[in-house]
């Protein structure tokens, strides 16, 4: 099989006719995110607090998977108008959407549906969306030239292709400069543009991107491209059998605030503290419920895990 540039292979592998995200099981069939289970319930509570803080009446979940976060949001605040955006039809969301929840199908990747527009009084959440927006993967050759990395879609074997040029090269020089042979660069221009397009659809409200990320001065020399299948890390092969993801250069996104998840969640009332022990004596069931939530909050703020996510927050209008 002929090699193609990683960005193209990545797009086809995730969002093509037989792409990974078309799988009937959905992402939850392969891995757990912070939107699932008890952590999802705590995250939803924090997002509702953020919506209330800004008097917003709607939440739009971009990259909604199979509606897991939407279900948690409805449980916390059934008065909010909810909309999910993902690559499957509403009828393919196995768990079922909350009553009255809207759904917009996208083509996947950086493209957003044309009818996702005119959003007012909305909290727009892009939770682990940008890390699966395919981007240019490049590597510095022995002469210090940044070149596209090409990949065989069947085996994952790689080779260096044409030099990176144009806007992608300009982005790399500004945000991820390196001339060290062997260094890899994941050019974030496609993510920046996807985020800007999303912001352009929001007339009034707040947009939040939450993701695995890095900032200037912390770019990993070897890049972050990774793959997951059925809960395990596997070799990145763009054949549709695994998730493909790369961390986001979050500081290059248009934002008003950039903060780690620990700080963001604590500012929204999530602290992970253990419930008082006397509650266990007075109301054992209430204590167990509170303990579950505090454990989930601790997981969401833990160093080395979800707590290291970055939040890019942008207020519009």
Automatic annotation (TrEMBL):
GO molecular function: methyltransferase activity
Nucleotide-binding among keywords: no
Pfam families: Methyltransf_28
InterPro entries according to UniProt: NDUFAF7, NDUFAF7_sf, SAM-dependent_MTases_sf
Alphabetic keyword roster: Methyltransferase, Transferase
GO biological process, one term: methylation
Protein name as annotated: SAM-dependent methyltransferase
Top-level taxon of origin: Bacteria
